[in-house]
Structures are given as structure tokens and as C-alpha cells.
Amino acid sequence: MVELKTLIIFLRWPEPASSAAGWRMLQIIAALRDVSSEIIAASAADKTEYSQALGMVDREQMIAINDQSFDQFIKELQPDLVVFDRFITEEQFGWRVAKHVPKAIRVLDTEDLHFLRHEREQALKTSSLELNFHNEECYRELASILRCDLSLIISEAEMSLLENKFEVPDSRLHYLPFMHDESEFVHRSFEERDGFVF
Questions:
Q1: Which of 39, 73, 76, 126 could form a disulfide with 57 if both were Cys (CB 3.0 to 4.6 A apart)?
Q2: Which pLDDT score is estimated for 181?
Q3: How far apart are CA 86 and CA 21, in angstroms?
Q4: Which pLDDT score is estimated for 164?
Q5: What are the pLDDT digits (tens) for 21-35?
């Protein structure tokens, strides 16, 4: 195992029973566990009844947005790798990480491209065939991607959009779909299956 201290900053504490984003973050933590000597999880959000216990991390830390206490926390921690859960989290804390631990590798897990999701919703509401990417959310998310050393992208379509339309260098993007261990799935014959899977 590498001597790699990893800080993961969550928008919300993972809730795998209520969101795919929570499930994905647990998968990322498990992958990081294989390469990190220490994992610290932090969030400014309160835990809810749906928040998953994070047994795979070494420490959990409550942090505050727009507060100098985070500066002291990050200076003392000196992580080698910082993972931001969604671009909003990178906007809130990324500049402080860059200022106080400039050598730390900064990774953005986009979950999915929020600006693309938003534009698809708008197109559906207006029955439009065109997506308008000239808006604040798009610019903010792209800026976050460009500030980070690497961004984790969940779909090939999003990879293509970022590389071809927005000319984000492929060296700054990593395609990482949901990770599944096949042993988690029970294989049944067609006759044994019943119900609907979505």
C-alpha cells in the first residue's frame, strides 16, 4: 500500500439507500482503500437517518463552508489526494485546498454532469431538440473540471461531450462508470426471474 493520505469532501454524507450518488461514493471509497494508507471523510452537511456508516474510512470530520477553521484543518492534515464530491464542493473548498496544500492532487467526482442533466430537463419541459450550454451552471461546472487535476466521468457520452464540444484534454478526464463486483449478483435462470428491473 502506498503512503497516500486521502481526504474526501462530501456535499452530503453518502446515502446509498436513497441515491445513486451515495452508492457511487461508497464504491470510490472502497477503491481508494486499496491505495490509501489513510482516508479522512469530511462534510459540512449534517448526517441524516439515511447516511451510511463509513467503516472504510479512518476518520470523519465536520467542516464549515466559508470558515477559516477549514484552513487550519487542511494545513494540519496535509493530504496527498483530495477528492471532491460534485463541483459545488470543489467550488466551496477547492481554492482553500490549492492555497494551503498546493502539491495535493485534486480529483473531482462529477457524479454526472449537472449542467447536462439540467439542460436535458429544460429541453424536455420546452419540447426543444436543442441543448443550450451557454448558462451559469455549465460555466461553473466546466471551470471546476479545469481547476482539478483529474475529473471522474460516469458515462461515455459525457466523456465525448467534454472532449469534443468543450475541448477538455482527455488527460484531465477519467471514465469511471459504476463499479460492480459480479459476486454481488445472483444469477438465476429466466424461469426463476420475476418482476421488473430498472
A1: 39
A2: 59
A3: 9
A4: 95
A5: 787 888 899 899 988
Q: How far apart are CA 7 and CA 69, in angstroms?
A: 16
pLDDT grade for 187, boundaries at 50, 70 and 90: low
Q: Assess contact for 30 and 55: CB atoms under 8 A.
A: no
109 vs 186, residue with greater confidence:
109
Q: How far apart are CA 130 and CA 33, in angstroms?
A: 42
**Distance (Å) of CA 104 to CA 26, 83, 107, 143:** 22, 10, 10, 18
pTM for the full model?
Answer: 0.86
